[in-house]
Design goal:
The chain is of the alpha/beta class and about 325 residues long. The chain has eleven helices and twelve strands. The radius of gyration is 22 Å and the shape is globular. The protein starts with 7 loop residues before the first strand and ends with a helix. The chain binds adenosine-5'-triphosphate. It comes from Nocardioides seonyuensis.
Length: about 325
């Protein structure tokens, strides 16, 4: 039986895109499930923005099937647009307007699409507070810093309380505090409002914090599709255990860190100090995959992940 969490809100099969005869996407397959935060990663020029713009209905694909919230984004109607939210990589508007005026204006467009479950739009004051712009609400847009401008972009993206939100490098230019607040906002949108989110980022720490699932785009295709933990486990199976004993430091690579540490304490008890267990991070997994791709082994990278996924399904 289909549950809310397993409902597919976007389905992409065999997506291809060529610019002036140069292939960028050569067969992208992906599903986005209701309520998840999905991170799309990949090197510069891999085609992340291209993919996201096709899903947003802002770019015409060369070939393939794309369904987002039940419609083909290339021919979707106004009602569909009101159910999606978009934060583009860059955006220009009226430099003399203020954040409050811009949000009031844009919010008005969503009011006719309000439903009891999803009252639209978000109240301007609440939204300004949510993105940390209350104090700058009446300043001219032209005077905002890059990071402040980006916060406004995020506000614009969520003002219509979208069911599906696309965020293309949303935190580029954020300071660490703004970034942390933004991460809380993304989790809150996903957990309290049930918003499904597709985001691209080059910040692997951000992906690790936010993603329910990660997709890696390389060589025109998705070469990995898994949770952060799943990716890390597949690329580097062993964990590194470090400890000190009697003034000496020890390091051991082990497949099962829990039983190794249990054994260590059984043998040496309180003699063990400064214990650390380090697992492969998303960064390790990402770099291994991209390196594999860049050395011309995209197919073997994709196979590695498909095989691993298959053996888990079979088990
Ligand atoms: N309008 C366009 N016309 C021609 N080529 C384009 C166009 N838009 C993108 N490209 C090319 O397509 C490729 C993919 O670009 P895209 O912006 O989708 O990549 P990306 O993964 O988002 O990169 P980044 O991480 O640098 O933002 C790049 O080689 C880019 O130069």
């Amino acid at each position: 039986m289909e549950t809310e969490a397993s409902r597919v809100v976007a389905r992409v099969r065999g997506l291809r895109m060529a610019y002036a005869g140069t292939d960028v996407l050569t067969g992208v397959d992906l599903d986005i499930r209701a309520g998840e935060v999905l991170c799309l990663l990949g090197p510069n020029g891999a085609g992340k923005t291209t993919t996201i713009e096709i899903l947003e209905g802002f770019r015409m694909r060369s070939a393939g099937e794309v369904t987002v919230l039940g419609q083909d984004p290339a021919h979707a109607d106004e009602d569909w647009r009101a159910r999606t939210g978009v934060v583009l990589q860059s955006w220009r508007d009226h430099p003399r307007w203020s954040p409050r005026r811009l949000l009031d204006q844009l919010g008005g467009y969503y009011a006719p699409y309000s439903t009891p479950e999803r009252p639209r739009p978000y109240g301007t004051d609440d939204l300004l507070a949510t993105v940390g712009l209350t104090e700058l609400a009446d300043r001219k847009l032209a005077t905002l810093s890059g990071g402040q401008r980006r916060r406004l972009d995020v506000a614009v993206g969520i003002i219509g309380r979208p069911e599906l939100l696309f965020l293309d490098e949303p935190t580029a230019g954020f300071d660490p505090q703004a970034r942390r607040e933004f991460h809380h906002l993304v989790r809150r949108l996903a957990e309290s409002e049930g918003t499904t989110i597709l985001l691209t980022t080059h910040d692997l720490d951000e992906a690790e914090k936010l993603a329910d699932r990660v997709l890696i785009l390389a060589g025109g295709r998705i070469v990995a599709d898994d949770t952060v933990d799943g990716l890390a486990r597949r690329v580097a199976g062993d964990a590194e255990v470090r400890w000190s004993m009697g003034g000496e430091r020890f390091v051991e690579s082990v497949a099962d860190a829990t039983s190794f540490v249990r054994g260590l304490f059984e043998r040496h008890g309180e003699g063990v100090a400064d214990l650390e267990v380090r697992r492969a991070s998303l960064e390790d997994a990402y770099l291994a995959l991209v390196q594999q791709h860049e050395s011309g082994r995209a197919d073997s990278a994709a196979r590695l992940f498909r095989d691993a996924t298959q053996s888990e399904v079979d088990a």
